[in-house]
Amino acid sequence: MKKIMLVTGGAGFIGSNFIKTVMKQHPQYCVINLDKLTYASNTENLKQYEDNRRYLFVEGDIANKGTVELIFDDNSIDCVVNFAAESHVDKSIDNPEEFVTTNIIGTYRLLEATKKFCKGRFLHVSTDEVYGSLGPTGAFTEETAYDPRSPYSASKASSDHFVKAYYHTYGLQTLITNCSNNYGPMQFPEKVIPVIIKSIINKEPIPIYGDGKNVRDWLYVTDHCKAIMLVLEKGKVGETYNIGGNNEWTNINLVNLICEVMDKKLGRNNSKSLISFVNDRLGHDRRYAIDASKVKNELGWEQEMSFEKGIEHTIDWYIKFFKKGNK
Q: Quick check: is 128 catalytic?
């Protein structure tokens, strides 16, 4: 008998890549995809599975108690993987309430339903941003104290604490993963790498916050998805696992690299002239870096995609995407 996995936020960037990983590599699972279909969701990402008997899409909000409980009541859910989240930092600064509702209340609804209906594992996908900002050296470990700096990261930190509390208080089989910046095909175009690519294609200014020296650790999305499956199936209940790319880039160096790759692909030589420095984001963290030794040493996870290949594959995908008239 196949296991039933509830994936929330599965029409988003990481969630849809994760579902593809499950459908292709883990035939023991059927997937129920619960997604609110916000602006950052795209059902086209998983259109190939519309008629697959192992896949069911349900449009709904994780913050809606009735919707969540109905799914659990109607299906024998064996495990939950929670991707559903509002994740854009700038939007959290302009409208924090949506982030509180989805990221905190929504996670609480899922935890309550799991406690009531499901005896299996609950994996909560979080972010390195809960740890705050690093200095020029060091990396976030699972023991790093939380120090969120934006409404987005504060809402994710709160949801992490709820997940841990439900493990300690109620004995739920919870797991948490905190990841670094993901990149790859199918990411919503508001994110930094698609923004850079689109700007270059359209010969428009490439916006860079502040001095461009903020540092991020980049992880290819399918490598992240494979790590999540390892944690779900082999991780120690109640534990947190950091998943990172060991691949730090300043924003300005990342932009320069993408400009060079795209100039070769588009037959140009001046994309760097499009770089435009803009006022820094409020509360902008200076540096993130993940120490992923725990998930590597305990669960045997290894990255498969080099950054050179990953960024070229991503650029190729977006060139086709934007040339089709997508925005």
A: yes
Name the nearest CA neighbour of 91 among 45, 42, 132, 38: 38
17-62: pLDDT as tens digits: 999 999 999 999 999 999 999 888 888 899 999 999 999 999 999 9
Catalytic residue among 35, 61, 78, 129: 129
212: left (phi over 0), alpha (psi -120 to 50) or beta: left
**Catalytically annotated residue among 128, 217, 223, 248:** 128
Catalytic residue at 129?
A: yes
Give the contacts of 165 (CB within 8 A, at least 6 positions apart): none
Output the pTM of the full model: 0.95
pLDDT of residue 89: 84
The domains of the chain, with CATH numbers, are 3-185+219-246+287-304 (3.40.50.720)
Annotated active-site residue 239? The verdict is: no
